Structures are given as structure tokens and as C-alpha cells.
Amino acid sequence: MRMSARVSWFLLAFGVWSWLIWITFAVNLSGSDDAWNPDGSPTAFFVVHAVLAVVSFILGTIIGILGWRGLRARRHTR
Whole-prediction pTM value? Predict the structure, then answer.
């Protein structure tokens, strides 16, 4: 299956955007007062949102790779 250049660029941009957004979120999460119990252990809030961030990093990476491969395939088939 071939992807159009527009779709490939969109997927690549989505992957980059996902990383930028979730890195910012992870930094803000780690510095949040809601993320840590008084004894220094992580709260349920932190754990749930950390899992969301990790899953989003993984999906953003996969989607970005698909976009990158789509662009490379278009370049090599010309």
C-alpha cells in the first residue's frame, strides 16, 4: 500500500507533535504537587498519567516512523 505525500507528512508531523506535547506534560507532571505523596512515593494520579505518557510516546513514535517510511518509499519509487 502506498501513502500519499500528504498523509506521510501528516503522520510524521503527528509523531513529532506527540513527542513535544507529552515531554512537556511529563515534565509538568513530575513537578506537580498532586503527583507525590508526602513520603515521596508517587500518587495514583502520577501513575495513571505516567502510563498515558509512555503509551503516547510509543504510539507517537510508531506513527512518526510510518510517516517517515511513507516519505522514503515515495522518494525511492520515483
Answer: 0.84
